[in-house]
Design brief:
Oligomer: single chain
Helix content: 25-40%
Radius of gyration: 18 Å
Distance between the termini: 45 Å
Largest sheet: 5 strands, mixed
Number of helices: 8
Strand content: 25-35%
Strand order of the largest sheet: 5-4-3-8-9
């Protein structure tokens, strides 16, 4: 079951997969380091490329409840990925991916993997050989499905809450259909204005990077797209 906008709904396999082309990735837990720093953000960033090539939806599965998954998606700004809470582990067990992580204090969780599912049939799975992320990432899946596809630019926005210039920059990026990751520098996640100074030499927000190149603030971004 999932809760969205205060309303409960029941998910079914037919509803998720029947007549559809789905890319699914699963991971040990929401808010965990690799899942938050790489796995989810990369699928979120590349989702427009997958969808432009005929994929109907990107699903993220984890043995967590809907409240945890919703909070994680909100914190990661993962608007392009649909979160699937597998609270009981039933779906994960059916995929043969339910593993015992008791040694880490997690209990029963999902092994890290990705899958391409067409009309309810699993066509391809990338299962990690170890507790790492080498083959289940978004780039590997994209290359497998669409070897000629060109990934979108990797965009990072360093921002602050209630920053009008940050809002302006993000609005422009969304208008351009550009996916981006947002790093808040209010100190809540360990990132501060010292972080901005270290990477950009400036101490104002926003600061925007595209494919590793420092673009600058909101005005600079407008000139970049002009």
């Amino acid at each position: 079951k999932v809760q969205k906008d205060g309303q409960w709904s029941e998910l079914t396999s037919d509803g998720l997969f029947k007549g559809r082309k789905i890319v699914l990735f699963s991971l040990p837990g929401a808010f965990t380091p690799t899942c938050s720093s790489t796995h989810l953000p990369t699928y979120n960033a590349l989702a427009p490329v997958f969808k432009a090539n005929g994929i109907d939806e990107i699903l993220c599965v984890s043995v967590n409840d809907t409240f945890v998954m919703n909070a994680w998606a909100k914190g990661e700004h993962a608007e392009n990925v649909t979160m699937i809470p597998d609270g009981t582990g039933a779906f994960t067990e059916g995929m043969g991916m339910l593993k015992d992580f008791s040694a880490a204090g997690f209990g029963q969780r999902s092994w890290r993997y990705s899958a391409y599912i067409e009309d309810g049939t699993v066509k391809k799975m990338f299962v990690e050989p170890e507790k790492s992320m080498e083959v289940s990432d978004a780039h590997t899946m994209l290359k497998y499905l669409f070897p000629e596809a060109k990934p979108t630019a990797e965009i990072t926005v360093f921002s602050m809450p209630n920053c009008t210039h940050c809002a302006r920059a993000k609005k422009l990026l969304k208008a351009k259909g550009a996916a981006f990751e947002e790093i808040n520098v209010d100190g809540s996640n360990g990132n501060t204005f010292g972080t901005i100074r270290a990477v950009s030499g400036r101490d104002t927000t926003p600061q925007i990077f595209i494919d590793g190149k420092h673009i600058g603030g909101a005005d600079d971004l407008e000139k970049y797209f002009a």
